[in-house]
TrEMBL record:
Domain TauD/TfdA-like: 122-404
Matches recorded under SUPFAM superfamilies: Clavaminate synthase-like
UniProt keyword Nucleotide-binding, yes or no: no
Organism phylogeny: Eukaryota, Fungi, Dikarya, Ascomycota, Saccharomycotina
Top-level division of the source organism's lineage: Eukaryota
Entry's family note: Belongs to the TfdA dioxygenase family.
Cofactor(s) demanded: Fe(2+)
Source organism per UniProt: Eeniella nana (Yeast)
Protein name: TauD/TfdA-like domain-containing protein
Length: 432
């Protein structure tokens, strides 16, 4: 037998003794034409920094990055290496699947928030139930006491806005680390050299092949199962599949359309209080199955439909800082109520989704426009709110930003906790 034949036999024997899932994983990781950054309705992206992306960067965004000494020489944005991206759903589930220490900064803050509010030129509530604008403060200059008080204000008001900001990406990241455990996503684009500083740039994704247009951008709000979500236009709450889901999230836009590109938030406190007292009693203590946005291969059926990461969390949660109850459901990522039939679960969940989405009196719509040369920050409690973007600028005008999310506590429900209206002494209508 020739030496070549012997070598070939040994190679075949080695392959035979490697499990099928290991062979598939090796193929996915080593074959650059295979999509490893899988997401619903999102394009496949090459890993590493994108040299072509730098050419697409808005001038204001590039200036902000370069002023913070971000290295753009290899490209922008940066995708984690193929060796770091999960292939199988159990690999994705294992990420942060352990208890992480968490300090709730807002819990022991001054309830009157004197250090924060006295330093501002103006503090204005945009609606009765959600959304506050603070004028005259730079986020990069906050003291720890002001950060604690801001955390509490965010957790009470749902979302707080700051226009005309000079905020370097590294400072934004430091704020996120102060408020919780920094979320580093295994496969989404981030600022080069700054894992956890996620790039929010649908214009880039569109140029890379994402099929989003004037007609289809809102299909998911009609039927998420049939049409999926494209470009964050569907109502959602981020990272609900985490063992310790998102707490405070901070999005800073450094390229903003002159008109359009708004974002809407809705209050989960107020959504809960929209329910009848009997419905509240029924839902208190119930649990839901929630899933991730990205999907992965299943080792037991690697050639079947990819699956999301799934977890079980309370349907009604208690907020650790305010003590108020809120609805923890969203159309994009809540799949069923544990213990109910699929039909029962669908009927109730679709009603709860509508409570969030159709009650405009518990929503706030925000336009990001700042003065030339400045950016805008929105900082929200990603537990007790939902949000969605409005893609009316259609990518014709640049919209670019960076997002940092602080992961918080393991979700829980305290049966002794009260709703927001109960805690504030507001009227509660009781049905006959």
């Amino acid at each position: 037998m020739s030496e070549t034949t012997v070598a070939e036999r040994k190679s075949i024997e080695q392959i035979v003794h490697v499990s099928i899932d290991a062979q598939i994983e090796n193929l996915v990781r080593s074959h650059k034409d295979l999509n490893i950054t899988r997401a619903v309705k999102a394009p496949s992206l090459a890993t590493g920094a994108d040299p072509e992306g730098v050419k697409l960067l808005p001038k204001s965004s590039k200036k902000r990055l370069e002023n913070d000494h971000i290295d753009l020489s290899k490209g922008y944005p940066e995708i984690p290496d193929r060796s770091e991206i999960p292939v199988f759903v159990d690999q994705a589930h294992a990420i942060r699947d352990y208890d992480m220490p968490y300090i709730e900064r807002g819990k022991n803050a001054d309830p009157e928030k004197k250090a924060l509010l006295s330093a501002a030129k103006e503090v204005k509530d945009l609606t009765t139930h959600i959304g506050t604008v603070i004028v005259g403060l730079q986020l990069a200059d906050l003291t720890d006491k002001q950060k604690d008080e801001l955390a509490l204000l965010i957790e009470e008001r749902g979302v707080v806005f700051f226009k005309n900001q000079k905020l370097p990406p590294r400072k934004q990241r430091e704020l996120g680390e102060y408020w919780g455990n920094l979320e580093v996503h295994p496969q989404t684009p981030h600022v080069p050299g700054l894992p956890g500083e996620t790039v929010i740039w649908n214009d880039y994704l569109q140029k890379r092949g994402m099929n989003i247009n004037f007609k289809n951008c809102n299909y998911g709000n009609f039927d998420i199962v049939r049409y999926g979500s494209v470009g964050n236009q569907v109502w959602h709450t981020d990272l609900v599949h985490e063992r310790q889901p998102a707490g405070i999230t901070h999005l800073h836009l450094d390229a903003i359309p002159e008109v359009g590109g708004d974002t809407i938030w809705a209050s989960g406190y107020a959504a809960y209080d929209k329910l009848s007292e009997e419905m509240k009693k029924f839902l208190d203590g119930k649990k839901v199955v929630v899933v991730s946005y990205h999907k992965y291969l299943d080792r037991k059926d690697p050639f079947g439909e990819p699956k999301p990461v799934g977890r079980i969390h309370p349907l009604v949660r208690t907020h650790p800082a305010t003590g108020w109850k809120f609805l923890f459901v969203n159309r994009s990522m809540t799949k069923r109520i544990v213990g109910l039939t699929p039909v029962e679960s669908d009927v109730i969940l679709n009603y709860l989704f509508d409570v969030y989405e159709k009650n405009v009196d518990i929503q706030v719509r925000f336009n990001w426009k700042s003065d030339p040369g400045y950016g805008t920050s929105a900082i929200w409690d990603n537990r007790s709110t939902q949000h969605r973007t409005i893609w009316d600028h259609e990518g014709r005008i640049s919209r670019h930003g960076t997002r940092v999310t602080s992961l918080a506590e393991i979700p829980y429900f305290d049966p002794k906790s009260r709703s927001q209206r109960e805690a504030l002494g507001l009227p509660i209508t009781k049905e006959a």
